[in-house]
Amino acid sequence: MRFILLLSLPLLLFLGNSGRVFAQASPERMAFDSLLQLAETYPDDSIVRKSWLLHRAGLMADAEYDLVAAIEVTQRALELRLRQEPELSMEVILSAYNIGAYLSEQGEYRAGMQYYDMVLNRAPNRKEGVTYYQIARNHARMGAFSAAENAFARAAKLPPFQDDPYALGLLKKELGLLHLDKNTAAGGRAAIPPLEEAYALQREAWSEDYPTDYEQMKCFLYLGWANTEAGNYEKALACLQSAQQLAYALEVDN
After folding, report:
1. For the range 231-234, what are the long-range contacts, defined as Cβ-Cβ under 8 Å and sequence gap of 24 or more?
2. How much is the pLDDT for 21?
3. Secondary structure of the chain: what % helix, strand, coil (to 5)?
């Protein structure tokens, strides 16, 4: 009897722990597991169905912050879709873009840009503008400021930035941050015009259904930083006070 109890104890602990893990699994993790399990029931020649399931599983893994799994399953989806690209051209673009995004989230900026290049090599397409935007951000993170600025300029001429004040305002804010990351007085001066434009665009985009007060607050905050770097201290203080007023209105504590 004692032997049975000792033998059963690890099993009981395993079952208990497994129950807790399952109980704590997020909806995204359970969706990932279900999509992957279903994908494995299809042979590789069921390209449309299997690649769709794998691509969706990648989205669920990303939502769960499991970038390794997201890259792995989306890479499998891309490989399948490339076999049938004439019929799945947009699906190839979407999978390539997502892998680029997942790699970039991991800090693998150069590897991510290889997949972004796959999107641009298939232009024109509806992901072209956001791909240039992401390439610009990757260049900025690597300190390639001139390349980043050029990529932002190309993105600004394409949808969704071309015809959406809110989206263009986000792009201009990122351009301002690009200059601020130089940590120089010249960088501060260069950041002011795009940040002022970002603020004006967010005001233009404001509506009761989609208020942009939080984005306006951030613009003022970054303008305070930019003017400080540039030596415009009174202007910097005025911008920071405007940011603080919006923060109080939004009940933002930090």
Report:
1. 231/185, 231/188
2. 41
3. 80, 0, 20
231 burial (CB, 10 Å; 0-12 / 13-18 / 19+) is exposed
In sign, the C-alpha dihedral spanning 18, 20, 23, 24 is negative
Find where tokens 């933002």 sit: 252
Taking 80 as the threshold, does the pLDDT of residue 5 lie above it? no
Distance CA 155, CA 123 (A): 13
What confidence tier does 207 reach under pLDDT thresholds 50, 70, 90? Answer: very high
Task: Phi first, then psi: give them for residue 212, nearest 5 degrees.
Answer: -115, 25
Tens-digit pLDDT profile for residues 35-90: 999 999 999 999 999 999 999 999 999 999 999 999 999 999 999 999 999 999 99
With 0-12 / 13-18 / 19 or more C-beta atoms within 10 angstroms meaning exposed / middle / buried, residue 196 is: middle
Contact criterion met (CB below 8 Å) for 104 and 112: yes
Whether the Cβ atoms of residue 83 and residue 61 lie closer than 8 Å to each other: no
* Distance (Å, whole) CA 246 – CA 214: 8
Q: What is the pLDDT of residues 136-191, one digit of tens each?
A: 999 999 999 999 999 999 999 999 999 999 999 999 999 999 999 999 999 999 99
Q: Is 51 exposed, middle or buried (0-12, 13-18, 19+ CB in 10 A)?
A: buried
